[in-house]
Amino acid sequence: MEKIYQFIPGQMPAPTSETAQSGKVQLKNRHLWIAADIAEQAFGDVQQVYAVYYANLKMLLLAPMTDAMFKQAHECAMLMLKTRSAEGDKSISLEEIIIDNDLDNKDRELEYAGAPGLQMLQIKID
Fold first, then answer.
1. CA 20 to 30 Å from 53, out of 62, 65, 87, 96?
2. How do residues 13-22 score in pLDDT, each as one tens digit?
3. With the CA atoms of 51, 31, 103 and 26 taken in that order, what torsion angle do they form, in degrees rounded to the nearest 10?
4. pTM for the complete prediction?
């Protein structure tokens, strides 16, 4: 299979306009809250996303359910992407990922990055 993006274990991509905006991706009440503009760019209008958490990297990768390559490249789960505000903010329950990986569940802003040209979101959770 041809590599369509470069994922360097343990290293976030260089900061972009996406990562520079604080508060756009947060952990709230064991849910991943994603600002509308970030969610639209990463997932479009889908209602489900593929998710995989790499504990050794403390990294959550998300892609829209329409991304067949992501599903082939990762052993992932499908999660519901719910609309949380009139502006279009989205949320995803991370309850199972938090429990299974013994992650800190306190509310906080999370470091994230998008993959240039791809509908995908990479989020650091430790």
1. 87
2. 444 444 445 7
3. 100
4. 0.82
